[in-house]
Write a structure and sequence with these properties.
By secondary structure, this protein is of the alpha/beta class. The protein contains 10 helices and 9 strands. It has 2 domains: 180 residues, Rossmann fold, CATH 3.40.50.300; 70 residues, no CATH class. Strands 2, 3, 4, 5, 6, 7 and 8 form a 7-stranded mixed beta sheet that branches. Strands 1-9 form a two-stranded antiparallel sheet. The radius of gyration is 20 Å and the shape is elongated. The protein binds guanosine-5'-triphosphate (GTP). The site of guanosine-5'-triphosphate has 24 residues, from helix 5.
């Protein structure tokens, strides 16, 4: 799907905080310098928008394990489209639900497998084997802490709905073969690409940045309409009609927000915008794929 989202939203609607970004980037590089394996977590609803263009430069020659989290928020059909697409990119994504634990054991196993090679190289150089060291990194709020908790099998890392909740560095042992930095690395979500930035905002994956709820919610409705027109089989039937008894098909995003505000929220457009975004993030509109593989 080619989105023309930002054509309608020329305004620079996402305000980034440069000081915060510089600090996050410095922390991330420090974390990366300590590890052999990088568990890169993306949001399965938007695997491209949660990819940072500098990632391969940052990861260098370390082993990278690609994790698409929130698999519960996409359909099996969309999941298999992504599997096929990543195959063409010569990548193998691991799908997880870090909240419930699905797919997490496979991540642990993949990280430990990287340790086998590492220790072979160490032995070849006459060095003693050691556990492989890994870090979980990803955009704000994609589920990094939840994944760490699941890898550890207990709740030690704060996991919150609030973006940007992360702490200082400590090694924790997952097994004889695997150690993990207990603090996830946050990828600063500053992106030139406003289409990607909008999707991050819709999914609440942009951390310490501010944005206009009404513009983001309008863009979301436009995206739903676009999906309805181009890939109706991949979408729940009329998701907005089902939830709000008001179909979006004949509206622009902006005019839909106003109509919804009249219909449900006594004309309060801001409230309608916030409600739409909250409902989407909670999965109350069904599993809407904001992104589909591009060829
Ligand atoms: N539905 C669903 N929710 C998830 C999943 N993984 C995490 N969450 C929820 O997403 C929210 C954010 O999760 P965190 O683990 O705090 O995310 P984080 O990436 O560590 O966030 P920061 O510390 O802000 O960078 C929490 O409410 C989690 O319960 C998942 O696989 N599915």
């Amino acid at each position: 799907m080619r989105s023309s989202l930002t054509n309608n939203y020329k305004l620079n609607l996402i305000q980034w905080y440069p000081g915060h970004i510089a600090k996050a980037e410095k922390n991330l590089k420090e974390q990366l310098s300590r590890v052999d394996v990088v568990l890169e977590v993306r949001d399965a609803r938007i695997p491209l928008a949660t990819h940072h263009p500098q990632m391969s430069e940052w990861v260098g020659s370390k082993t990278r394990i690609l994790v698409l989290n929130r698999v519960d928020m996409i359909t099996p059909q969309v999941r298999s489209l992504w599997v096929d697409w990543f195959k063409t990119q010569k990548e193998v994504p691991y799908f997880t639900n870090a909240q419930q634990g699905q797919g997490v054991a496979a991540i642990s196993k993949a990280a430990q497998a990287a340790g086998v090679e590492l220790n072979q190289r160490r032995r070849d150089r006459g060095m003693l084997p050691r556990p492989v060291r890994a870090v979980v990194i990803g955009f704000p709020n994609v589920g990094k802490s939840a994944l760490i908790n699941r890898l550890l099998g207990r709740r030690v890392v704060e996991s919150a709905a609030r973006p940007g909740v992360t702490r200082s560095l400590r090694w924790v042992r997952i097994s004889e073969q695997l150690e993990l930095l207990d603090a996830p690395g946050v990828i600063p979500a500053k992106l030139q690409n406003q289409d990607a930035a909008l999707k991050l905002a819709i999914c609440d994956d942009i951390g310490q940045a501010s944005y206009d709820n009404q513009l983001v919610a309008s863009a979301f409705v436009d995206l739903v309409n676009e999906l309805q027109a181009t890939a109706p089989d991949l979408l729940p039937q009329l998701p907005l009609q089902t939830r709000y008894e008001l179909d979006s098909t004949n509206y622009t995003g902006e005019s839909y927000l106003h109509a919804l505000a009249e219909h449900r929220y006594k004309g309060d457009v801001e409230r309608a915008a916030r409600q739409l975004l909250t409902d989407f993030r909670k999965g109350l509109l069904g599993t809407i794929p904001l992104e589909l593989p591009v060829n």
